[in-house]
Amino acid sequence: MCGIIGYVGARPCRDILFNGLRKLEYRGYDSAGISVLREGSFSLVRAVGNLDSLEALLDTVDDKASVGIAHTRWATHGVPSERNAHPHTDCSGRFAIVVNGIVENYLRLRAELVEEGHVFSSDTDAEVVAHLLERHYRGSFLSALRDAYAELQGHFTIVAMSRADPELILAVRKETPLVLGLGEGENFAASSVAAFMSHTRVAVFPRSGEFAEIRRHGIELYDEQGNPVAFEGHVVDWDEDAAEKGGFETFMLKEIYEQPTALVDTLAERVGPDGLVRLDGMGLQDELFRDASQIVIVACGTSYHAGLLGKYALERWARLPVEIDVASEFRYRDPVLDERTICIAITQSGETADTLAAMRVARHSGAHVLVVTNILGSQATREADGVLFTRAGLEIGVAATKTLLAQFLVLLLLALHVARVRGKLDEDTVIRTVNELRSVPASLARLLAGEAPAQLQELAQRYRGSPFFLYMGRNVGLPVCLEGALKLKEISYVPAESYAAGEMKHGPIALLTHGSPVVAVATDGRTYEKLVSNMQEVRARGAHVLAVASEGNEGIREVADHVVYVPATSEMVSPLLAVVPLQLFAYHVAQANGEKVDQPRNLAKTVTVE
Ligand code: M6R
Known about the structure:
- The chain is an alpha/beta fold.
- It folds into three domains: about 5-245, Glutamine Phosphoribosylpyrophosphate, subunit 1, domain 1; about 250-445, Rossmann fold; about 450-590, Glucose-6-phosphate isomerase like protein, domain 1 (Rossmann fold).
């Protein structure tokens, strides 16, 4: 969603801010703006559309100022327009602010402020923040922000400047992301490390409700009562190239090709010298898993699909009852949980509002919460009892790819570990499966270097005009299908549905006509024969079957119109490979249709609002 960057230092900051916004483009936006402060006055520019529109106006911004804030806006309250873009100012012109998130009580606050004589110049919820600063200002910028914050409800991050404090920016977050960058004689505030990674790797992650005073030579944090708070810097080891396309035409394609590395990095330190899984530092003791009565998994979107594989693995290997739900449903449906429940929340960003809320519901009911996330210092890591990190590196493409694979892997490792702890799998089986997982990155690299990518590009060309795609699979092939259909919808805007293949006869098969493309995930496994029957059924109705199958399965050619082979693995491991052709297929359909793959319409990388 919205992206923020603020800078205080010695260097002219206009271009630093603008380049920071470029690094935040992946979050999704429809307008943008910059304000810098020098010699007691703001220089401000805003534009609708992509950053090129803002860039065209940059010459009008003071290029000597060394304090400033900037923003990319993803519209929620008020249409995308210049007047609704941030930064916003108050009536006196003393304050300039940028906000990410939603101020839920803004209508009441706005009415009060208008009553007091404040004049609003936008339709946004965010503008109330500037006028509240004006309302509460008595000579102390920090106190004014604290008082303003106390009146605000919702989830948001605020970064603000004041003409009266020309070498200071203030920042505070309530649930939504904020990370501070500690540089040499310069400091940053941003929505993501990506915004300042080319200037500093030292990041501070303030807690919700902590106020940051950011000056050229240092940062101070205060709690809501104004007491200083100790903090530490974390060195972020993401590759700086992560924020560049590195020769690929899109971030998404680059990230698809980075998947073998994401798996290697996620596996590192997770396998002990004995060949068993090591989950050191997870934060939840083995006894909890040994004594657990159930596991509930909560997540949204692609992370939910990872959770489905986690369910299959935990049930099959660890023999624990596992329930799974999308976080937005779970949080409102009074789930039955207790202290013998372990809730696994999966969220690559660690900031998804519904997932965070679902975690709170689980904790409130006494459950122990383990989060699987890709982001160090994210809100989810602060609220969970335990954390398992995926090591996929920075993912810029809005459509998740490498983070999904890393989630699949972490969940399989967790399931193996829990199975051993509970005495449901012997050590030899665990070691054998871990070894198989270790061989996946090489198999995947071989898949990506082989014929499959070109074949998928060709298939995408052939079927790109189809008005509808059906995906079907069984067992662990089902999460793969759900993900394949989601990828296609997200980036190519082509309607696609995914069904458990056994459900076809109960409705979806009615959709099929001559030439309808049906994607079948038909890798080897316990339900393979059943799936073949379903393939025959859809072909009998004229559908064309595009099958993903295990290498060596020549027989499938008789029941499929097209076969894309992936290296053969055991069933539970197969999704790590089978999902990749579906990512590539969606990618090439979108490319063939001329869509903007990295920034699909209406979508944001991190969904920090409900
Ligand atoms: O950051 P999270 O994993 O919590 O995000 C959840 C979903 O918003 C996300 O997976 C979304 O579905 C992606 N756009 C999928 O490509």
